[in-house]
Design a protein that fits this description.
Length: 438
C-alpha cells in the first residue's frame, strides 16, 4: 500500500523570512510540479504555497527516500540549503497526513481559524496538480474529500460566522445596526491601513457610495481612486456627516476631529437617521461623548477588540465540532483506502467474467444472428445481469475484508477459485463453475 506524506512548514514553525524563501510563486508552480514528477519515488503530488505555509502532499511507495527527495526539491526551489530549514519542517504520514490536509482545508490550521481564503488556495493548487498530471486515484479522492469536509465544517458549524479582525468586526456591527448595508453611504477619514480595509469590506458588502477625507487633499484623491469614491476636504466633514450613514476614521490627529457639538448640530437635519461611527485612531478622532446622542453608535478600537475576543471564543467552540467532523471523515477515507488492496483482484474477476461472456457469445453467434436486434440486446442484458449478480457476493465479501490481517489469504483463495492468474486460453472458455457449458 503506497504511503501518503505531507511535508511543510507554516506560520507556527517558521519565521516569515524563511517562508518567503521557500514560497513558490504561481508562475513557478508548474516548474516545481515538473521537478516532482521527475522523481521516480513520487507517484502523485501537489504543492501548496501561501503567505502562511509551504507544503508538499504526495504519494509514494518508498516513503523515506521520497521524503528526502521532496525536501531536497523544496530547497532547490528556494535556493536554500536543506540544513537551513529542515528543523522548521513538520512531517505527517498516512492518516495523520489526511487529518492535516482536512484540517487545513477547513481552516482549522490557519493563523485565523475560520478564514475563508485557504480553501480556494488549496483548490488552485490541486487544479495545477491535475493540469501537470501529478494527481492520481489516491490524490483525486483525497482532495475531493478535503473539499467535502471543508463544506461540512462551514455548513454545520459557525466557525466562519464571527468576525475576528478589526475590519470584519466593523462590518458585522454595521449589519446589526442597519440590518442591510445596501444603499448606505460611507465617509472614510484618514488613510490608515485598518480603516481602508474596513472601508473595502463595507464596499464589498453593498454600500452604495463613499467619500474620502484627508488633511492632504492629494492623498484623499489617491485613496478615493481605489474605491471609486469622491475626495473631500477636511473642511467638508460636517457637511458629509449630514449625508453619511457610516463613518470610518483613522487619522494621525492629536485632537478630536468629530465633536459632540458637531454631531448634535447635524442630527436634526438627518431626521433621526442612525449614524454609525468607527474610530480606529489612537489617539481617538471622535469625542467619546458623541455616543450619548440618540441614534448615534460610536465604537472605538477597544470596543472592536472586545467583539473580536468574544468571536474568537465562539470560533474555538465551533472548532471543537469541526475537529469531530474531520475525524469522522478521516475514518471514512481510511476505509476507502483499505479497499484499494482488493481492487486488482476485483478487476481481474470482472475481466475474467467479461472474457467468458465474449467467448460464449462468439460460440453462439450463428444462433444469435437469427434473432432480431431487440432480442439480441435482451439476451445480452440478461447475460450481463446474471454475471453481475454472480460476482456481487464475492466482490462485497472481499471489500468487507479490506484492512484485515487475513485479507491476503482471501485474495489468494479468490484468485485460485476463479483461476485469475492462469494465462492459458482455456481460462477464457471456462464457466464460472469451471465446467464447460452443455
Amino acid at each position: 500500500m503506497p504511503g501518503i506524506i505531507n511535508i511543510g512548514l507554516n506560520h507556527e514553525t517558521a519565521p516569515v523570512a524563511l517562508r518567503e524563501c521557500l514560497a513558490v510563486e504561481s508562475q513557478n508552480i508548474k516548474k516545481a510540479l515538473g521537478l516532482m514528477r521527475s522523481l521516480d519515488v513520487v507517484s502523485e503530488g501537489f504543492l501548496l504555497s501561501t503567505c502562511n505555509r509551504v507544503e508538499a502532499l504526495f504519494v509514494a511507495e518508498e516513503t523515506e527516500e521520497a521524503k528526502r527527495a521532496v525536501v531536497s526539491l523544496l530547497g532547490k526551489m528556494g535556493s536554500i540549503p536543506v540544513d537551513d530549514f529542515s528543523s522548521c519542517l513538520y512531517t505527517h504520514e498516512n492518516m495523520d497526513a489526511v487529518t492535516h490536509i482536512f484540517s487545513v482545508a477547513s481552516s482549522l490550521d490557519s493563523m485565523v481559524i475560520g478564514e475563508p481564503q485557504i480553501l480556494g488556495q488549496i483548490k488552485d493548487a490541486y487544479l495545477q496538480s491535475t493540469r501537470e498530471k501529478m494527481s492520481g486515484v489516491i490524490l483525486n479522492r483525497l482532495m475531493h474529500k478535503a473539499f467535502h469536509v471543508a463544506k461540512r465544517v462551514r455548513s454545520e458549524t459557525d466557525i466562519c460566522g464571527a468576525a475576528v479582525s478589526i475590519s470584519y468586526a466593523a462590518v458585522e456591527l454595521a449589519r446589526k445596526i442597519f440590518h442591510t448595508l445596501e444603499g448606505k453611504k460611507v465617509l472614510l477619514m484618514g488613510a490608515g491601513e485598518m480603516a481602508e480595509l474596513a472601508a473595502r469590506h463595507l464596499m464589498t458588502n453593498g454600500v452604495s457610495s463613499m467619500a474620502v477625507a484627508n488633511r492632504t487633499f492629494e492623498r484623499a484623491v489617491e485613496v478615493a481612486e481605489r474605491f471609486r469614491a469622491s475626495p473631500v476636504s477636511f473642511h467638508e466633514i460636517e457637511d458629509q456627516l449630514l449625508k453619511a450613514d457610516i463613518v470610518v476614521s483613522s487619522t494621525a490627529s492629536t485632537e478630536f476631529i468629530i465633536t459632540r457639538k458637531m454631531v448634535k448640530k447635524v442630527l436634526k437635519k438627518r431626521r433621526n437617521r442612525p449614524l454609525f461611527l468607527i474610530d480606529i485612531a489612537v489617539p481617538r478622532d471622535i469625542e467619546p461623548e458623541v455616543n450619548k446622542l440618540s441614534n448615534v453608535y460610536l465604537y472605538d478600537i477597544d470596543d472592536l477588540k472586545g467583539v473580536i475576543e468574544i468571536n474568537k471564543a465562539q470560533r474555538q467552540d465551533a472548532a471543537v465540532k469541526a475537529h469531530r467532523i474531520v475525524q469522522e471523515e478521516v475514518v471514512k477515507f481510511e476505509k476507502w483506502l483499505k479497499t484499494l488492496a482488493v481492487v486488482p483482484t476485483i478487476v481481474s474477476l470482472r475481466n475474467k467474467a467479461e472474457a467468458i461472456v465474449r467467448a460464449e457469445l462468439g460460440k453462439s453467434r450463428s444462433a444469435l444472428d437469427q434473432l432480431t436486434p431487440e432480442h439480441r440486446k435482451a439476451v445480452d442484458v440478461l447475460i450481463r445481469s446474471i454475471v453481475e449478480k454472480v460476482l456481487n457476493d464475492p466482490i462485497l465479501f472481499l471489500k468487507g475484508k479490506a484492512g484485515r490481517s487475513t485479507l491476503n489469504n482471501y485474495l489468494d483463495t479468490t484468485r485460485q477459485l476463479f483461476s485469475l492468474d492462469e494465462g492459458d486460453e482455456s481460462s477464457e472458455t471456462k464457466t464460472l463453475t469451471g465446467n464447460r457449458p452443455c
